[in-house]
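Hi all, posting the design record for the shared folder.

TITLE: backbone redesign
STEP: 1 of 1
STRUCTURE INPUT:
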């Protein structure tokens, strides 16, 4: 009683109109009578507990943001509540600063609902959701997931092959949330040296290590009140993963070399091109971190699985490239569209973008045609170059006849295991534009093992490490 009264008075002191109830049943009656914007409820209550109250609130026609109060040891229940639609949760005893921030964010979310409905109408009419494009059932399902989860504060794990648009999903989640006017910060965990990744993400104090000549804010602080994308989360070192988990649970971080914890209010989106369950089984991703990040999962399909979207994506790319390169391309021929739709796109949307960019620059104006495609486009053994050109991969002649539109490796009966392994490795290198780091990830081997294999094959590749 005293705790409930004290919390009510605290919230009223911030300028909110409040009502209080002794349990979930009384609270639901008041919700029906009063239609509040926000409900702050305990998890454990007599007559009707917090989970049942949340379930009933989610069935109401009006939108109500639910904030769950949890005791120590009830974090799993809180995460389950967020899966059911709760806006956020806060451990007891309640920290006033954190509660105030959550309430402010919930109000901003309510104000964003009108704009979100406009965006939904645009999506239904045009097949466009922010930077994402698609009219296929696969993409419509992705759009629906984004719409559902964007207004909440839950962590999201975006999975899928390289080049499928995982960062675009993160940006769409940010743009459709109440945080859209705050920073969006993206960091590639695989691109940062292991010795620097903690400093990059969490920041450091002056003198924390050799070369730390001044205090530096990390990505969490740079994304304050906004969204932080942690791309290729499976490449994050285990020690950093443990520290990240604590920040996600406590909403506080400690810069390297600091004795003081700093509160943070950041929505985290993580992305990986690995199978997360396999990454957990292999020890590459902590199971508890995966559980905390995977409150909501969005699996991006490869472009070959929704080829009907090649046309609208290509058309949008043409508009973007016209603006970027000052061209006046008006569209593409039917012959070009047929070639683009038939291709398997091992590099997914990223490869399509590079192909359209090259074609737009070559054409300059008029219609894009098949003559603007890279040489040997779509033929067996075709390997798109990193900068939009193409090449015949001389070392990979043995694998050229094995390539199909499904980007498969076909091994004839009688082929030795060693030769089949060689063909698989070299074919995978082709599909990743000769990027050995990506190829090693897809093959499920270490970069060192891949390098040793290439030395055995006497291959003289020159791709990205």
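Okay, here is what came back for every position:
SEQUENCE:
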């Amino acid at each position: 009683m005293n705790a409930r009264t004290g919390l009510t008075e605290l919230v009223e002191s911030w300028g909110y109109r409040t009502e209080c109830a002794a349990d979930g049943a009384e609270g639901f009656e008041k919700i029906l009578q009063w239609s509040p914007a926000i409900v702050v409820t305990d998890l454990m209550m007599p007559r009707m507990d917090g989970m049942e109250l949340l379930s009933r609130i989610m069935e109401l026609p009006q939108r109500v943001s639910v904030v769950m109060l949890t005791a120590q040891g009830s974090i799993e229940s809180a995460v389950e509540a967020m899966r059911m639609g709760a806006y956020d949760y806060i451990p007891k005893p309640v920290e006033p600063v954190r509660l105030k921030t959550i309430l402010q964010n919930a109000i901003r979310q309510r104000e964003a609902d009108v704009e979100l409905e406009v965006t939904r109408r645009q999506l239904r009419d045009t097949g466009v959701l922010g930077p994402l494009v698609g009219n296929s059932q696969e993409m419509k399902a992705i759009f629906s997931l984004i719409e559902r989860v964007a207004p909440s504060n839950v962590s999201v794990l975006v999975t899928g092959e390289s080049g499928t648009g995982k960062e675009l999903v993160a940006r769409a989640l940010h743009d459709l949330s109440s945080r859209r006017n705050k920073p969006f910060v993206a960091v590639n965990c695989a691109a940062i040296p292991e010795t620097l990744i903690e400093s990059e993400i969490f920041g450091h104090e002056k003198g924390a290590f050799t070369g730390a000549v001044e205090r530096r804010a990390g990505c969490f602080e740079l994304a304050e009140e906004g969204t932080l994308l942690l791309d290729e989360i499976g490449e994050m070192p285990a020690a950093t993963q443990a520290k990240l988990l604590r920040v996600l649970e406590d909403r506080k971080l400690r810069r390297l070399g600091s004795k003081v914890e700093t509160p943070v209010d950041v929505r985290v989106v993580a992305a990986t091109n690995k199978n997360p369950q396999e990454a957990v089984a292999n020890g590459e991703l902590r199971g508890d971190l995966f559980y905390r990040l995977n409150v909501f999962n969005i699996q991006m399909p490869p472009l070959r699985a929704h080829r009907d979207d090649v046309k609208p994506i290509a058309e949008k790319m043409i508009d973007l490239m016209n603006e970027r390169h000052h061209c006046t391309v008006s569209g593409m021929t039917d012959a070009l569209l047929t070639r683009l739709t038939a291709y398997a796109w091992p590099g997914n949307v990223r490869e399509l973008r590079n192909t359209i960019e090259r074609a737009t620059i070559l054409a300059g104006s008029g219609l894009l045609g098949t003559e603007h495609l890279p040489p040997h486009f779509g033929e067996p053994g075709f390997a798109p170059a990193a900068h939009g050109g193409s090449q015949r991969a001389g070392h990979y002649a043995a694998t050229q006849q094995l390539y199909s539109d499904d980007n498969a490796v076909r091994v004839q009966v009688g082929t030795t295991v060693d030769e089949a392994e060689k063909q698989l490795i070299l074919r995978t290198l082709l599909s990743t534009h000769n990027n050995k780091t990506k190829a090693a990830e897809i093959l499920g081997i270490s970069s060192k093992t891949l390098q040793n294999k290439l030395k055995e094959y006497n291959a003289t590749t020159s791709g990205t490490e």
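COMMENT: Residues 96-126 form the longest helix (31 residues).
Let me know if anyone wants the other runs.
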